[in-house]
Amino acid sequence: MLPKKLAKVLFVAAPCEHSFLEFLVSMAVLKITNVPAKIILDKQAVRPWKRWFLVQFKEIQFMDYNATNTWTKIAQQYKNHERLALIICPLKANHGQSQFVSDQWYYLCKEQRLPIAMIAIDEQKRVLRFHGHFLAGKSAERDLNFIQAYFKPFFDSPIFR
Half-sphere exposure of residue 133, counting CA atoms within 13 Å on the CB side? Predict the structure, then answer.
């Protein structure tokens, strides 16, 4: 899915309830990407006892997606690495629809000219679905609606009802 010359990318993953299944999916993504990858989860979305378990893995970081300095720190990580893929879960999974917790990640991608790639868990077929990467366009509203529309069928899965 990712061209070998692609050095930096931001993966948007959903549905995501930060359960053990999503953790295994994240680790699978780490293994199949050809760039060093980190997982940045929303601190507010993970229960403290799960956070304690997940923080044991060096690839996983916790940040508050709604904090103003979070995306500045993430942009700095991209600047400090020649090759880096970050995996984030910016959609709320406990709703029947795909709603963003925050859309600041999109503006980070736009400013830094970072490609966005989408990953979804298809519960029906028990597979990961990848969407080809793209750059943020001129219309943020159009791009964000496209991303939400991509994830909508995965939120309709019986496991999330």
Answer: 19
